[in-house]
Amino acid sequence: MKTRAYRCAVAATFISFLAVISFRMSDAGEETGKPVFELYDPGTERVVNYEEYGVFSEPGTFGYKYTITDPAGLAKASGEGIDPNMSVEKDPAYLKMRAGNKAAVDHWKHINTSDPRSDFFAWATAYKESPGVRLFFTAKALERGRQYIQALKAYRAAMLLYPDAFCWNRELTWTWLIAPKAWDEIVNITRMHPELGVKLTGAFVKADSAVGGDPTKNYVAVTPGRFVELTAKDRDKAVPDKSGLKVTKRRGGNKSACVKYSNGQWGLEVDGKPFLVRGLSYSPIKVGYDYDWEWMGADKDKDGRNDVAYQTWVDANRNNRRDSDEPEVGDFGLMRDMGCNAIRLMNNKPFDKKLLRDLYKTYGIKVLICDPLGAYTIHSGARWEIGTDYTDPEQLAEMKRSVKETVKKYRDEDWLLGYILGNENNMPGDYTGVNASRTQASSQPKAYAEFLNDVAAMVHALDPDRIVGVGNMELGLADAYALYSPELDFVGVNSYSGSEGFGALWIRARRIIDRPVLITEFGCDAYETAKGPNEEAQSVYLKNAWADIVYNSAGNPGEGNSIGGIIYEWLDEWWKDTRGDPLDKQNNEPTFELAFPDGFSQEEWLGIVGQGDGKKSPFLRAPRKAYYTMKELWTK
Known about the structure:
By secondary structure, the chain is of the alpha/beta class. Helices cover 28% and strands 19% of the residues. It is globular, with a radius of gyration of 25 Å. The termini are far apart.
């Protein structure tokens, strides 16, 4: 039976071609102190030992199943709200709430409200709902109520008891799977709250899911793992000491290299020194123009200085005019001041070598060149309505020729950090969707992976001094890259997975492909449909994402396969609306579903810097709270 699409502040994003759900806590990562509400029955076990109450069958396969043999014992251990426990019906607070509300409770109206206890009661007793969905949202209410241990138990119960559970999006057009998202939530909570002293070890969830709305094509394999209790001493031991580690493998060359240490962790070296990418996706567009505006040639007053690189100024009081105490600082200066050490540039127009030489020499910022490799049919010559075909020899030759010209043109430049091949080319071939990559890579995984390998090998031959990787949406097709793309030095991942961080992405990546991970896009818009501009939410989102990136970098307690991240994006772009609004008007309407505070992305509000009312573009800069938050994190 289709689960009814909910209408609250819920959001979705793609993981391995699967749209999954994520939610925003109003102050995610900042919640401390006592629980918002108390539990009537917290269960007898802080960490439930499922082996004691049932049998796991075929773990790690699509035939996985957990059979309960002692339901009474499992119920007693788990506590209220967690199957098979029914004690929530005896909770005095629940009985009082029910007595005061004679009407049936609509549990779909109890997601992320200001009353997590009512949300908990509504979902814990939503017996007509799919049990996996019920458990997931019960866990979310417990998490928001700061009942973190009980939330962890509820997420794990959803993952173990109902591996095939799924939910529909608002429009009933596609499904997302409960088990992998529950695993993500467990990883996020235990990372963000080390004071809980627990960690899920040995777990893994593999999903082979349908793109679109056919749940009969969803398959989930669960490896249960187990929760372990950790003391403060245990946590200290989990932090590796890099000082005595040897480099056992190098991918790249003298200018940039991905290095693998003797403990299995990965790092990045630039010019022989450790380097964690603190990056920005940089594509400044003047209001009134679209993506074809060439910022590298912008010089309105003909003084020989680039308008956006050197002549932008900060509108400190947000009055949309330049006052006497608002000097020119330029984007290059603003990015340097916030601690940025790399920008990503799309290879769809020629670069000004002199300008980028100064970017590096004066401001210390390097460049990652991203070649679309057929995304949006750029450089492939494919028809837009069909998309790039990675089995077409002519298209392959055109794309390869473009990359070859780029490498030969810029390989001698000191500002060049490395190369990214593609940008979300693995996205499903939905040629009518706003997020369509306009490629056939998702249906041609082997051909695409082999072509990536061919191009990467060519790049290494032409420029043996630098790294080259793929630009991907999440980890879709990573298994194909592991088989057919040995020349890739790193996996670049665009991820918008929610305000708590990236969940189990790092674990998934390590299991699927032994390469370091660069988050090639992460970010959040600064606008909520019901509230208007919301700089605080954007700031929290980026802060927590960066904390996760650092936590999983070499020398830290996580997986040790993170080499940094690139914020999407530097500046609001006003041309992205798909409904025909004029280019000089900033669109406030939601563009599509994404894991942002209101469940949607407002594509023209993704910058950590705004352009005011647009009348002083391209010179006016209005840095948002996220800019200053990241500045504090990147320069401390």
